[in-house]
Prior knowledge:
The structure is a homodimer of 192-residue chains.
Chain A: H1 9-23, H2 30-37, H3 41-48, H4 51-67, H5 76-93, H6 101-107, H7 114-141, H8 150-170, H9 174-184
Helix pairs in contact in A: 1-2, 1-4, 3-4, 4-7, 5-7, 5-8, 5-9, 6-7, 7-8, 8-9
Chain A binds a DNA duplex (30 and 30 nucleotides) through residues 1-6, 29-31, 39-43, 45-47, 50-51.
Amino acid sequence: MARTREFDLTTALDQAMRVFWRKGYAATAMSDIYAATGLKPGSVYAAFRDKEGLFQQVFEHYAGIFRATLPTDRQGLAAIRAWIELQAKLAAEDSDRAGCLIVNTVAEREAHSPATQAMAQGRMREIRDFFVRHLVIAAQSGELPPDTDIDLRADALVGTVVSIMTLGRAGADAATIHHVAEAALEPFRGKK
Amino acid sequence: MARTREFDLTTALDQAMRVFWRKGYAATAMSDIYAATGLKPGSVYAAFRDKEGLFQQVFEHYAGIFRATLPTDRQGLAAIRAWIELQAKLAAEDSDRAGCLIVNTVAEREAHSPATQAMAQGRMREIRDFFVRHLVIAAQSGELPPDTDIDLRADALVGTVVSIMTLGRAGADAATIHHVAEAALEPFRGKK
DNA sequence: GAGATATATGATCGATTGATCAATTTCAAG
DNA sequence: CTTGAAATTGATCAATCGATCATATATCTC
């Protein structure tokens, strides 16, 4: 019927992702995308509709990768601790200082359409749900007191992640980032 | 000798500030500045050199206002508590969802020149110094144990502020922001 | 192989970007 | 009042923005 696509969609999304991730949406020009992917305008627009469409697919691509960092082999406080420490490590080691595309996107709110904003808010909710889930497990298993304020602890942990990501993007040094993570895990200290 | 300026520099900076604050640097067009200030291109460029020069003066203008929010009538933990709670209140009530221009600027690092980045990093340091100063006072006055890890506590508090500002910009609801503030002040709870 | 159809290409679109400029206006010094 | 210097104005600059297009090319179905 027709000619086949010569480039790999996922590879292109991955290359475009790095640009949006590092530069942000508004500061990224389509010419940056052409340079990063090696594609020409026509191919990009045929495959991704427009800049916003490209970003949304990039965002979903990122969200999938990001979701894979959530631990599945632990439960309760161990899962929370492991993930916070992993993210702190990644943020402290990230030489690109790109932060987290989800946090970057909700923070660059003005530059995005309502539809894109909603996508990003959805992913933020997903992060919060992860914390709630494991906090509930911890409270039920006796790791945390039964009267633990789950909402407060979940919001505080979301705040910690946002902070770690933003500090990473801002170029804060590793010690600062690890201190933030360490302090955030203090309320769970000494509990198995 | 010459014609006098017809507009007030500080007023213009204040009007331009709101635009950069809300939209970010990259997403702000000079035409947005003309609209916000009522000035024409020639006047803006004559007074502020270029977009970067304008932003730097806007940034200094903001930094002055921001510094004035730091409490001077309290010391030690009371000062820290008061300021964190004030910032949480401001972030939760901010209908513009603009966040904090200092945090926004370090987070939008890629869009700024090294000189502008350095200015923003300097202000971040200033915030940290505020925490260090009052933590030292608290430790010396017995509000905190003498062996308190000042660096860790200061970094954690900086992280809290970054988190509150970013969540505010992201449009998080008031409860989330207040939860972050509340959890951050927990290590100091019960201490006079 | 022929025809149909999707993709690749790169020139090019109008709009907007940051910035400049000549012309005009205004004010202070002499 | 004259004169020089600074400020205002609005047109306009080249460059870049996101996006489109006609054309050429490649692939699948028949």
